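Sequence only, no structure available. Ideas?
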Amino acid sequence: MRAINSFRSFFWNIDPGYFNLKLATKTILAIVISLWIVRDEPMLTNLLAGIGSGFAMQGVVAKTMRYRAFHVFAFDVFYFTVFILGLMVRESPIWSAVLLTVLGFMVNYIRRFGLEKSIAPFMVWILCFLATILPFKSAETAWPHVYGLLVGLGVSAGVILFVFPDNYRQLFLNNTNLFFKALSEGMNELRAQLLLDKPIRDYCDVSFVRIKQTLKKLADLNQTIIHSSAFVEEETQLSYSTADLFALINAYSLALDAFYDLWQKNLDIPRATRLTLCLMCKQCAKFFSFLHMNPDFLIHKTKAYRFIPNLGERLGKTPSVRPDLIIALLNFKLSFELLSQSATKLLRNEYES
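Reply:
I predicted one. Tokens follow.
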């Protein structure tokens, strides 16, 4: 099980959200379906079906179903049109050079209109280039094989729209709310450990330590969604809120590091101090359990709840002669202060435009 988790973590680190893995899977699926449909056709028809489906799967950057359908239709029209143009000029080296040159300029220039992260324009040029070099005896003999290209484009359109459809807005909302829930659970688990002082065999296998990895994955996934151009109007707002999530992770990590020092050095905490730590963890757990992001990406509290003021001051007054215990408690205090500040900033919903 640990090997499987390590394998999944490796792929998550290089592809948060498995977006590229999903795209690769959908591309293979589209190619296989296209080849199965034209399995009784000549080899060149099969070749065009595979090329058409593989190319058409790339470059759709629209995130809503409405604009994704428009992108698919527009790109498929371009793919088919340039391929036909390539077939028409393939027997003339001069016209082939002119067409490829003009098309090369156009596909580079058009990327400035919202297609900076899309490779679809380059796929258009490559498809036109392939039309001029594929081993057809003549342009007339190529027309019967165009059926394969139409099959590939049609199958890819269906796969893009209906297989693993990505609702990025809802995914961002779910990730953020799961983040708050996981952070609340982590603080509850940390409180239980401080209160009961249960023996720990493997620190990395403790629930509140594993929750830290969950928090990182959720924040990384939100950041990946933002960078994928899923949002336009809300991009600045969501970038700031995601940065605040990473600030919460850092504050949570500081509390875990402080607990690790207590556990590793087997430091004895005074009873009053232990109860104060437990109360602060309980406060954080309750507070974050009440945080919720709305469909308009504004964060609010579902219930009125506030941190008890100056509770952390008690940690700075713990009677102790051990510097390592004092440092650990001060790190706890700083962690709770940072958690409170970051949460307050999130609730303001005020971001620079």
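Strands lie at 291-293, 299-301.
Hope that gets you unstuck.
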